[in-house]
Amino acid sequence: MIVQRRAVPAVLAAAALLLTAGCSSDDGGPAGADASASPSRTAPGSSAPPRQAGEETPPAKGSVTVVRTVAEGLESPWGLAPLPGGGLLVSSRDEGTIVRVDEKTGRKTELGEVPGVAAEGEGGLLGIALSPDFASDHMVYAYFTSAGDNRVVRMLYDAGKPAGEQLGAPDTVFRGIPKGFIHNGGRIAFGPDGMLYVGTGESGETGLSQDRDSTGGKILRLTPEGEPAPGNPFSGSPVYSYGHRNVQGLAWDTKQRLFASEFGQDTWDELNAIKPGGNYGWPEAEGKSDDSGFRNPVDQWSTAEASPSGIAYAEGSVWMAGLRGKRLWRIPLNGTAASAEPQAFLEGEYGRLRTVVPAGGDRLWLVTSNTDGRGAPEDGDDRILELRVK
């Protein structure tokens, strides 16, 4: 049953981990497991999809240059939201705080702690996004795990207050998303249509993904107030697409087409082109399927090569951050199909990669994730990097 609540007009105001043999964590394998022999990236007998006519395609080969380290010493960073006037807001999964990073100096200022965050396993304070009307309403949206569910809240950001007191009381926009020790989803983003898109996980209960009355294992599309958005594929429902395992990446191309990354279990991680009402197969299908009732991914990777979290679109390609894979993937596109073989960059150089966000033009912000309990932190972890890509 879907549970939601219209937000009150804004005022200034452990689950046990049950894993069957072979069930993976957000790393594409049990916590602490090492990558062993893994299947090749492309399924036997498969080939790249044909190019779509009328699309300008990026070069088959691209490049990544690390321009600089923007900031160091971040604790379990998860979401990142660039401010329109400069500065980067970063959420800490385990600390439950949001900090502002000066992208020129790296200086960090804590805005405050989000009350009600229950950080455990893969849950905690996850994705953040700015209101489409941020210039006038100064609202920051956040997805977090509470004691009983995953939810989306919004908070007033008042930069004029002292550090640590700049976040207003959270106003719950949407509640009742299933929570678990694993598979909490967590990415949120406002689309080109001004609606709020929410990537959720099935919390380890695989049956939720195919249940359209559940918000687990879905991409949700909401109004900024938390109602099912007009034009959703299922009348009166917030569900936009279903059959997902654990969605942690959302991005749009220049033609307003939505893409999403998804964690596989043992075999295939996915990059999907999202269609309203589309069924992406989990748990009946993992990766590409011969079942015409399921939508196949744009491409797929072994879980040891990817375990993808955030994605961003820039220079004609989707850029996908890998946690267990410890690399940044470039997927050049022609429409909603891959136009060439994906390329891997930064393999093993910065450890686990969590979030990637457009920084304008050919630049990206990239956030590492080595202090989340599954990485091997080095001096300076975790970091925000500025990249130049093509």
UniProtKB/TrEMBL annotation:
Molecular functions (GO terms): oxidoreductase activity
Keyword Amino-acid biosynthesis: no
Domain Glucose/Sorbosone dehydrogenase: 74-374
Region (Disordered): 25-63
UniProt xrefs under InterPro entries: 6-blade_b-propeller_TolB-like, Glc/Sorbosone_DH, Quinoprot_gluc/sorb_DH_b-prop
Pfam families membership: GSDH (PF07995)
Keyword terms, alphabetized: Oxidoreductase, Signal
Signal peptide start-end: 1-25
Compositional bias per record (Low complexity), positions renumbered to this chain: 25-40
EC number: 1.1.5.-
Keyword Nucleus among UniProt keywords: no
Protein name per UniProt: PQQ-dependent sugar dehydrogenase
Species of the source: Streptomyces dubilierae
Lineage: Bacteria, Bacillati, Actinomycetota, Actinomycetes, Kitasatosporales
